[in-house]
What does this fold into?
Amino acid sequence: MEVMIRVPKIDLDNMEGEILDNVRVEVEFRQVKFSYPSWPESIISEDFCLQIPAGKSVALVGGSGSGKSTVIALLQIFYELLGEEILLDGIVIDKLQLKWLRSQIGFRQRKCYEGRGC
It folds into this structure.
């Protein structure tokens, strides 16, 4: 019941925040620390770092439960970080307008199976 009545701190309707006129789309995860709100005592990632240069494609590969979807959810600010930051073009994503940020992100999901290829 506690999880169901919890009010999220992330407000999708908040129209405050910066909107970038020119987006290069350079993404950096800087020593990210995270746990799910329903299990705050279980640290899912700690000191996670990832740099994605502008104009490059990146594949997140791993088994079920390895954190691929969580990385995307963190970038889209579906969860709050416990430590450090995620940057888009050198700006901390918390400073950006949430609706605008989410409108800038696209990804393609492709499932690959051993022996069948992608």
The chain has a mean pLDDT of 86. The chain has one domain: 2-12+25-103. The helical segments are 2-5, 68-75, 98-103.
